[in-house]
Amino acid sequence: MPTSWADSVSAADNLASAARPKSSYVPPHLRNRPTSTDPPPQASYAGPAASSQEQSGYGGPNVGGNRWSGPRNDFRSGYSGGGGRVGGWNNRTGGWDRGREREANPFVDDDVESFVETENSGINFDAYEDIPVETSGENVPPPVNTFLEIDLGEAVNQNIRRCKYVKPTPVQRHAIPIALAGRDLMACAQTGSGKTAAFCFPIISGIMRGQFPRPPRPRVAFPLALILSPTRELSCQIHDEAKKFAYQTGVRVVVAYGGAPINQQLRELERGVHILVATPGRLVDLLERARVSLQMIRYLALDEADRMLDMGFEPQ
Ligand SMILES: Nc1ncnc2c1ncn2[C@@H]1O[C@H](COP(=O)(O)OP(=O)(O)OP(=O)(O)O)[C@@H](O)[C@H]1O
């Protein structure tokens, strides 16, 4: 009998898989193409399942033999997300606003609010210190006590200060080092405990430090990270937060959700995207229109995965 959330999800998963034949979804633009184990069209792309760094061209987050980067000194990347040039990303001038478009300051509204409120969210994070945290798995990287203990890069550290985050919440203390070490992670923590930053910081930092080939096709968005969330509201919230964390890092975050006209979202995608925040239905739509490819995805986050399964999004 399932004893925890994870058990019930896994039991539901097993039931669902047993009930129907296993076939993975292949969007139309990828049908009749080489399988993912075959070399992709661009010679310099070593693919998400690359087992060796020696494969040509991809110097990405695969440092030290795993898919996620450990700390690196060179913060260069050859990938612009399709939207323009990038140089050194981990500096204040390395943003995507150096070309035709200016990066809007996502902290503008916060500054207005700070006249009436100096604390970040009114949540008493000190009380969270008493919350016990359990981790399982082998050789779990130890938690950190401060953001400065984690090498997220100066641009992200600056954004953490702009967000007025003084210290990491428990889920952040544990999850960020685990993700930065290149490990897969499932985390459960109560609402409002800072899970968004827990998965966004390692993704942004990994993209800043990685080296990626240019997207192989124009007019198709090749995000490096995908964050799936069940609803439009949640996706917009994550997008707003992620834009703050990624401000002036050069990492561009775009959101796509259903129930709204797709054209504006398509235009945003055409300008370039490193992190795509999407609801499952709209993502499938974009894949079917061949406007987004998941071929270059290095990071996948499923926010509220239990809810997405409850809502029947498992096939997507
Ligand atoms: N280390 C921190 N210090 C102060 N505030 C923080 C910190 N981390 C996150 N916050 C703020 O706490 C609030 C809640 O965070 P967030 O929305 O990420 O929580 P969550 O766990 O994802 O919640 P939900 O389960 O509702 O999605 C946000 O306003 C966020 O900016």
TrEMBL record:
SMART domains, per database record: DEXDc
Span(s) of short sequence motif Q motif: 145-173
Catalytic activity of the protein: ATP + H2O = ADP + phosphate + H(+)
Molecular functions per Gene Ontology: ATP binding; hydrolase activity; RNA binding; RNA helicase activity
Residue intervals of the DEAD-box RNA helicase Q domain: 145-173
Keywords associated with the record: ATP-binding, Helicase, Hydrolase, Nucleotide-binding, RNA-binding
Domain (Helicase ATP-binding) ranges: 176-316
Location of region: Disordered: 1-108
Basic and acidic residues bias (residue ranges): 95-104
Family per similarity comment: Belongs to the DEAD box helicase family. DDX3/DED1 subfamily.
This protein's name: DEAD-box ATP-dependent RNA helicase 37
